[in-house]
Each structure stands twice: as C-alpha cells, then as structure tokens.
Prior knowledge:
The structure holds 2 protein chains of 2 kinds. By secondary structure, chain A is mainly alpha-helical.
Amino acid sequence: xxxxxxxxxxxxxxxxxxxxxxxxxxxxxxxxxxxxxxxxxxxxxxxxxxxxxxxxxxxxxxxxxxxxxxxxxxxxxxxxxxxxxxxxxxxxxxxxxxxxxxxxxxxxxxxxxxxxxxxxxxxxxxxxxxxxxxxxxxxxxxxxxxxxxxxxxxxxxxxxxxxxxxxxxxxxxxxxxxxxxxxxxxxxxxxxxxxxxxxxxxxxxxxxxxxxxxxxxxxxxxxxxxxxxxxxxxxxxxxxxxxxxxxxxxxxxxxxxxxxxxxxxxxxxxxxxxxxxxxxxxxxxxxxxxxxxxxxxxxxxxxxxxxxxxxxxxxxxxxxxxxxxxxxxxxxxxxxxxxxxxxxxxxxxxxxxxxxxxxxxxxxxxxxxxxxxxxxxxxxxxxxxxxxxxxxxxxxxxxxxxxxxxxxxxxxxxxxxxxxxxxxxxxxxxxxxxxxxxxxxxxxxxxxxxxxxxxxxxxxxxxxxxxxx
Amino acid sequence: xxxxxxxxxxxxxxxxxxxxxxxxxxxxxxxxxxxxxxxxxxxxxxxxxxxxxxxxxxxxxxxxxxxxxxxxxxxxxxxxxxxxxxxxxxxxxxxxxxxxxxxxxxxxxxxxxxxxxxxxxxxxxxxxxxxxxxxxxxxxxxxxxxxxxxxxxxxxxxxxxxxxxxxxxxxxxxxxxxxxxxxxxxxxxxxxxxxxxxxxxxxxxxxxxxxxxxxxxxxxxxxxxxxxxxxxxxxxxxxxxxxxxxxxxxxxxxxxxxxxxxxxxxxxxxxxxxxxxxxxxxxxxxxxxxxxxxxxxxxxxxxxxxxxxxxxxxxxxxxxxxxxxxxxxx
Lengths: 469, 330
C-alpha cells in the first residue's frame, strides 16, 4: 500500500462511507421503532409509550443530524474521488439516487421538523403521520440506495457504447439480480440494530434499578422485535448467500477463506486465518472441522470452491472479505443466542431479573451497528478489484486529484468526523445517563388537522393542555 | 435535444432554490457571530431549525441531478472544485451537527454557536469560490479536468466569495426581520443597513472584473443585452425596496425583495453561461446522459417535485408567523 491517489481515494471513500452508514442504520431502525411506539401510544394512551418515544426521539434527532451531514458528503464524493466512475455509471446510478433525494430526503426533511418540534402545533394524530412519513422516507431511501449499490454489484439493463453507458431497461437496472435480496437484508439489519439499542439501554437501567417501568417496557419491546427479526434475518441471509455465490463467486470464495480450487473434504469452518495473497495460501488457519461442509453444502463431506477459481488479477483481498463476513456472521449467531435466551426467560418469567442476561443485552447494545459494518465490508471489499462488477475496475475510476491533496482532505475528514463521533457519543451517553424525563401524568391522544391549520400560534399553555403534560 | 434542456432547467431550479433557501439559513448562521446575547442567538437558530434540513436537501438534489443527467460535467467539475467542495461539505457538516448539539449543551453553547457561525461563513465563502472559479473558467481537456486544484483560489473567485457571503447575510438579516420581534428585529434592521450596500459594492466589483477574466461574459452581454439589462434593473429596484422597507412594516417586504434580488442575479448567471453546463467549456448537450436516463429522472421529477414543493411549503406553513420567544417546544 503505497501513497498513490488510487489508494488514498479508496481509503477516503471507505472511511467516509463507513462512518456514514452507522447513522442511517440507526435512523432507519429507530424511525420505524418510533412509529411503532407512537402508534402504540395513540392506541393504548399509555403514557409510558410517549415517554419511550420522547427519549428515543432525542437520540434519533442527533443520529439523524450526523447522518444527514455525512450523507451530503457522499452525493459529491462519487465524483470527487472517482470522476471516471461517475462519468460512466452516472446514467445508471444517478437517476436512482436522484429519485432517492426526491422521494425520501425531502419527505424526511419536510416531516422531520414537524416530528421534532411540531407536537405542540399539529396535535398527536398529524404528528403521528409525520413520524410515519419519516419512517417511510428512511425505508424508501434504503430501497433506492440499495438498488444503486446492488447495480454496482450485479449490473444489469445497460450496454456500453463508445465508452459511455446507455441504459436499455430501467426495470433491470433497479430490479437487478441482487437488489431484492439485499434490500430486506439491510432493512432487517437496521431494525435489529434499533431493537438491540433499545433493549440494551433498558437492560442498563434495570441493572442500576432506575426508571423501572420504562426499562421493562424497553427490554420487552426490544427483545421481542429482535427475536422475530433475527429469525427472519438468518433466512434472508441464507438466500442472499446463494444469490451472491451465483453472481459474484469470487466474493464468496474469499469470504470462506479457502484458496485451493476445491477445499478439503470434509471442509472446516474457519474462524481465524492469516492469508498470504501473493502466494495464494493461508499462513495459518483455525476452524471447526466438518462445520464448513454442514453449513455451506448442507452435507457431511461436501467441499467448497476456493479463491484460486478466480484469476489473481480479479481476486478481492481475502483477509478483508473474510473478516467482514466473520464479524457479521459471528454477531448474528450471538444475536440468535440472545433471542433464544430471551424467549426462554420470558417463559420462565425472569426476563427482567436475570442479571447475566441483562449484562449480555448491555454488551450487545451496539452489536447491530458492528454487524452491519461487517456486512458492508464483505459486500464492498468482496466486489474488488471492480467498482462496477465486471464493467469498471476501481483503479481506472480514480479522479485526477494529486495525492497530497487527497491526503490533506483525508486528514481533515478524520479529524472532523472524530469530533462528530465524540460529540454524538458524549450527548447520547449523557441523555442515557440522565434517563427519560418525568413522564407526563396522563396523556390525551387527541388532535386533528385543525390545529395545524388554525391561524394563530398555539401558545405553550394551550399546547401543554393538548398534550396533557 | 430537448431532454437535456429540461434537465438543465431542473438543475437550475434546484440551484436557485438552494441558494435562496439555504442562503438565508447560512446568513442567519453567519450573523450569530455578531450577536452577543445568548437568548437572541437561541431565537435566531430557532427561526431556521425546523426547515433547514429541507433547504439543504436542494444542494444534494443539485449534485445528484448533475450526476444523473450530466455525468460528464459532474466528473469534470468535482475534481476541479475538489477543495472548495470538500471544505464546504465539512463546514456544512459542522454547522449541521451544531443544530442538534447546541441545544444539548448548556455550558458550552457559546462554543457550539461559534462552530455554527464559522461553519456557515466558511460554507458560504466556499460556494462563492465555486461560483468564481466556474465563471473564470476551469481547465478541461476532453472530458477530464486538467488544471490545478488550487485554481479556485485565484483573485476573482475570492472576490466572488465575499460577494456571495454578503448576499447570504442580506438574505439572513431580512429573514430575521421577518421572523423576529423587538430587539432581534432591531438587530436585523441594523445589519441590513450595513450588509446591503456591502453586497451591492461587491456585486458591482464582481460584474466589473468578470469582463476582464472571462471574455465569454462580454460575448454573452452582447448577445443578450436586453435580458441582462432587465435583470440588473430588477436587482436595483429590489435593493431599493429592501432599503426603503428596513424600518417599516410589513416585516415580510425586505425578505421578499431580497429573494427577488438574489433570484434575478441567479437567472442572470444562467443567461450568461447558457448553453454550457461547465461554463464556457462544455455544452449541456455534450455532457448529457443517454435518453432513457434523462426520461427516468425527469419523469420522477415531474411527478414528485410538485409534491415535494407542496409539503416543503406545508412545513413552512406549520412554523409560520413570528418565531415564539420560548422556542418551538414551548
């Protein structure tokens, strides 16, 4: 890894996009969680839901803010670092992202203000509509951006004429071979992330014996959602694995850590490897015997394809792909174990009292984020050396920007993003430490469009009367 | 042939909406630096908090429309404007997180306000550099940028940067006059009285020197003398309306006039560079994406834009009138 523009442009993109994805993952998940919780509040009129809503809304707002400003960077970064990629792929992915901005960013932005500051002005029902619109916006956003990224993974519906890309079939560009599997995979990942965040914070309060009603509801909701979601995720993940094996064999060959064209039979399931890309072998490998055959081929002695099936100039770097996959997969197994345990403890009626389980939940609080990052490293490093799989190599896509400039801006990004992260963590941890505010004594779930259309400004006394707080 | 034209119009629409809407946001942000009272600063930020995100989305829309409809231009412009764009994005980022974090911080709110103000000023300044660099002309060979990333720090772009910053302050101050009461409104009026002449002086200087640095501008003036003269006239009239309305009611008039003034300026710029998408270098037809891509974007835009404008307006409507002294949470 020398200091050349291509490497620096890649590091910069990888850093900014990895940092960014943390926040949308949380926002997508928390927006849906908030919509569910506010819906429960309107239905049951139980003030505890409003308390949960308000608590997570403040964290959602901070995460959303960081997500917006780091996402803004990406819409320009396609061209800043990878001008040739933008010029070639623009006709295909540009319209998808444009539609993302039109259908989802504006939707989120338009209703976020009302969601955050409008409770006193529009009344609970219209406010609930705003929450749902924000949640819908995050979902649409994920759909479009996953369509764009999936097109880079499994491009379809285009031809290249005189060095320019021409779209021949939009339906194939959007519904490319991997989109329909990767979208639910990412959405479920985001919802799992939110579930573990909520459950983890609740568990922390239970361990400290604080805000018990709030904490119990959080743990109950979080583990319930997590249990349903992880079961679905295992299923979706398995289908996606099969799809990628068919369309991007090189990625999955690297993901399993085998070099030889055929792995040994029975194949072990590797957990730690030290790959040597140059000599095309592992210097060290540690795995569980037989498990590879059982999991990957669903037989006792089946063998798996290794990376030598792909010519060396088209191979991804095995270490990154392998560990990205192992982090995601390892955490999925842990999530599955926690979900199973939660079912058992629910049955035994000690979900809120088993301290070991609560400690596990606290440790698992950020697990969804780490697993999602691992999954994206698998997806993106596994696509290399291509930026558009089979069409354009990353190395040929780089902008004419000198290495020193790239290095300077990379350092600026690292410093300012570190500041964002520090501030975000500081305020989120402080919000958690302070706990949910005093819960309103009673909450009245009424209100209609009329409030929004009333000419005079609601003063705070009236607004509080509407809210009953 | 017609499709790239419509796409260019849509791009122009998003640039215009961005400059007008985020223009006053950034102007208000810059003015935080001059406002010594914390209560007033809270009030200033409150006035733009519910809608800033939507305003900034027009910037993303601009970038992405370029990528979708004019990928060749996007691929030339991004490396050419590499430094000002990245600095602008980081500055907008610092300003954006300050919205959330200044509310959280009570002890360090002053520091967050400083970050907020500097972020706004730097972002505005960088946008001015981008404008100036585009007007002066960037070096292009074929479909690749072949100049230096430092070209945008030439004297003319720096002059444009001052002009854009002053223009945003005019927008921000007239917005504050529109939304604020008492002390803060007086502050806005005082600012407006200084900022407007500054902006006009900078604008005239930019106009004067633009003939020297870019021969294409002289050619464009010869070709569209009437249109450009009319637009200049609108700007002058609008400036008079602002100045005359500073101490009078209705409070909305100077804001409306500032919007008209800046909008006329942007239309004038569009007339100057038409039909180029990389000004004076690459025409919009040479840079455009294939037919089906244009149709996809434009169909989407045709259906979704009215809805977007509708609920963006609704968001402003919900938070209409004077900003409450105690903030939106009451």
